[in-house]
Amino acid sequence: MLATVSERTPLSADWPELDVDTAYAIQDEALRQRRARGETLIGVKLGLTSRAKQQRMGIDAPLLAWLTDAMVLPAGVPVPSLIHPRAEPELVFVLGRRLAGPGVTAATALAAVDRVYGGIEVIDSRYADYRFTLPDAVADNGSSAYFSVGPVGLPPAALDLSLEAALLEVDGQIVDTATGAAVLGHPAEALALAANTLAARGSALEPGWLVLTGGMTDAVPLHPATRVAAHFSHLGS
Fold first, then answer.
1. Interval 223-233: pLDDT, tens
2. CA geometry: angle at 164 spanning 226 and 212, to 5°?
3. Which end of the chain has fewer CB atoms within 10 angstroms, the N or the C?
4. What is the pLDDT of residue 175?
5. Residue 50 confidence (pLDDT)
6. What is the pLDDT of residues 163-204, one digit of tens each?
7. 237: helix, strand or coil
8. For every residue of 166-188, which 3-state class applies, written as one string?
């Protein structure tokens, strides 16, 4: 039986006192339920790490969310039914060792990375018209839906991640482009933020985990039959 999906009003509309700490507790409970259904925790994602995304959403702080194996979408596989999906290119880290805060810097974060990949994240907010506060977005696990990881993985020392470029293609047309500098100035800053944020919650980034560092461009809406691709300078397509 296929699951049905439907939008709702933001939680903050019914619960104005919702704060970020409570929203992360909601996020953790949702993860517990996912794991009880048999999903495996495989990493985390950062959201709202680019100024373009923050400005469009009217939110001025990044957020963290969980990734499970059920969110992996192989390249070329159609996106399952969603409410109002959007796609964005991302730089994806695979950790070679545990990374625990507090006090993690971009340099120490990058030293824990085994490989860097290009990827596409498909996001989908539960909230009508994609309108929400930061606590709403956190409680919704950062609008997480699915993600695909590209075919080329390189050690971080082989790349200038601040200059690694992505071109976002929709139906054969390039619609946006950005470099890694769009992600908090450098994607390693997003990784450090993830480690330090998890430390405040009593957790850490584990070996083998994937970390999606955040959309490099604004997210583009997806419609039935839309074909989307991301092309990276050194990380393939």
1. 999 999 999 99
2. 65
3. N
4. 97
5. 77
6. 999 999 999 999 999 999 999 999 999 999 999 999 999 999
7. coil
8. EEEEECCEEEEEEEHHHCCCCHH
Strands 63-68 and 86-95: unpaired
28-41 pLDDT per residue, tens: 999 999 999 999 99
Residues listed for the chain: 237
Q: ∠ CA(170), CA(182), CA(70), 5° rounding? A: 60
Alpha helices, DSSP H, located in the chain = 11-14, 20-36, 51-57, 106-111, 134-139, 187-200
pLDDT, position 2: 44
- Whole-angstrom Cα distance, residue 168 to residue 121? 12
Greatest Cα pair distance in the chain: 49
Q: Tell me the two tokens of residue 224.
A: 């039935």
Q: For residue 203, give the nearest of 44, 20, 33, 26 by alpha carbon.
A: 44
Residue 211's H or E segment, with its range, is strand 210-212
Question: Residue 91 corresponds to which tokens in the numbers above?
Answer: 């730089």
* Strands across the sheet containing 165-170: 173-179, 165-170, 228-232
Residue type, 133: T
Q: Reduce the DSSP state of residue 137 to 3 states and report it.
A: helix
Beta bridge partners of 67: 43
